[in-house]
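SEQUENCE-TO-STRUCTURE ENTRY
===========================
What this section holds: a protein sequence and its matching fold, both as plain text.
Tokens: labelled as protein backbone structure tokens, with as many entries as the chain has residues.
Question of interest: how does this chain fold, as expressed in backbone structure tokens?
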Amino acid sequence: MWLLKKKHVTCAPASPRSAHQSVQAPLGLSLFSSRAAAFFFFPRREKMGKRWIPLEANPDVMNQFIWGLGVTEGEAQFCDVYGLDDELLAMVPQPVLAVIFLYPLTSLDEKVEEYDASATSAAGGKDSNKKVYFTKQTIGNACGTVGVIHAIGNAASDIKLVEGSYFDKFYKQTADMDPVQRAVFLEEDDEMEGAHSVAATAGETDANVEVNDHFVCFSCVDGELYELDGRKSKPISHGPSSPETLLQDAAKVIKARIATNPDSMNFNVMALSKQ
């Protein structure tokens, strides 16, 4: 599966939310936008809370974001994944610490979100695996930042954080919190909101355009592949994995997800690689 990267190009979903222009992919290729902004969708019947500016799926933007918050520059960086076939995955710098996937939300995703919101409330927001760093998302348009938080938080043993930096303090302060408490902490955190705003306006996509896309993170924790989605009540396990096969294992799940929405080409994959 080839994923052709284009700047400033996203295929608009049927929803009138998007102001992007649809384009056609070359024969045999799947058009894969690397510069789509992500909008976290809340069910219309729920009251909209705090909302941030959408974050662009752009490795350059993401790298400046994480380096500014405490990841040592030269320690780790985001890079584009240009395709999901083995020969294209082999081009991605190793080792891969996390995979970020951007995809368009559908009405089915909305139903899942409503169900999981109810399940979270009933379960008190408890995580089934305490070794997985997971937070709920309660801020609109924050899914890119939540994805980054999941990626860094579950690669803490492999990434050197600057002592006293934002990330260093954030993960220490939230280590013993449950996913709902972490979401509340993030919602009240002015420093992260400011950093997100700077990153969101540094991209190439119009930050004022509403789109209906969503970021999730894939991480390998304790020999298992987890999908980390702040809309869900807990991490979703996709079976055995390893640091060496994380990218390939995540690619299989992503391929299956893309296959459920064949009419859309607005997908993006980035890898967080250790340098």
In short: The radius of gyration is 17 Å. The chain has one domain: 3-274.
